[in-house]
Predict the structure.
Amino acid sequence: MDARFLDGRSARAVDADVEIDAAGVHVVAGDRILSWPFKGLEVVVEGDQARLSHRSDRDARLILNRADWEGLGGTHTKVLSRRRRTIETRLAVGLAVFAAATVGFVFFGIPALSGPLARATPPSFEVGMGRNFDNQLGVVFKTCEGRPGQQALDALGDRLASGTDTPFDVRVRAVKAPMVNAFALPGGPILITDDLIRDAKNPDELSAVIAHEVSHIEKRHVMQAVWRSLGIGLLLDAVVGGGSGAGQQAVLLAGQATDLRYGRAAESEADARGQELLHAQSLSSRGMASFFARLGGEAARARDDDLSRVAEFASTHPDSVRRARVARAAERPGGASLTPTEWAAVKAACGPDDDKLIPIIRRRFGGG
């Protein structure tokens, strides 16, 4: 019986003569003579070929015509091939179960653990993390120079935070950024973009946004988002290989997709708590519904091929229309959060909109 033999040490196949008797398979390949007993013999039959190996020399392979092999050793072929297929099936099932468990842990386990982890995080650690985040963002999002407006924003943040149960020093400031957005950082900082300040129609709308972000800090939603992002990043890095280029890219993409974003439950909780904070200070909460309603309407009208500044806020604060409806049902009248003088100072804090810089920033940082 003619066959080809590979010793596993080189890629060169050697012509071989094969004989089979009651003791096993005997191979003469060049200057090598091998005898493989049936015990320990592994046979894989695929297409018109049969591939033989033995546990005594797992690197070596004997390849011969399937018809030749089955004509002499068909009984062994069927038994051993079925055993091999069983092993391969079990391996495939095991890998599928592992993949399903990994996906389940990413999308269900990590979000479920992020809350307890956030509550267990020492405040001092969160403050330090927030300071690092703030410093990094400060390179891109420059603080607005209007000091009277900044003082008015920070004072409003202090007033709202005074009614919370939080260990953090809430600090609000306006920054220059090409998007309508507001976001809280770990440990207390809240950044309000100049585009959002320009789009706010009155102090009630701006105070509603700030109250919402203060609530995220109090409920430690910010740290939950950080843990969720960190957990997914570490898991992806473990799966694709730590330190590899692909692993690092996957971790970066995971961070960009989840960083400082909240689930629907967290957003709803921050909406309701934000209105409570406004009510506790006898301030009007009517701005939340009007702000969300306008965002929802403008985002819906935005053309797909345009960069909608409104869509920037909607992307991190989803379901604006639904949330506006819920907020309107709970809103109450109250005093103004800012005096006319303070409102004018806030509006002027960031100066005129420099349209020349915005396209450059967007190209540099992927805004569209």
Remarks:
- The radius of gyration is 33 Å.
- Residues 2-84 form a domain with the PH-domain like fold (CATH 2.30.29.30).
- Residues 126 and 161 are 17 Å apart (CA to CA).
- The chain is about 60% helix and 15% strand.
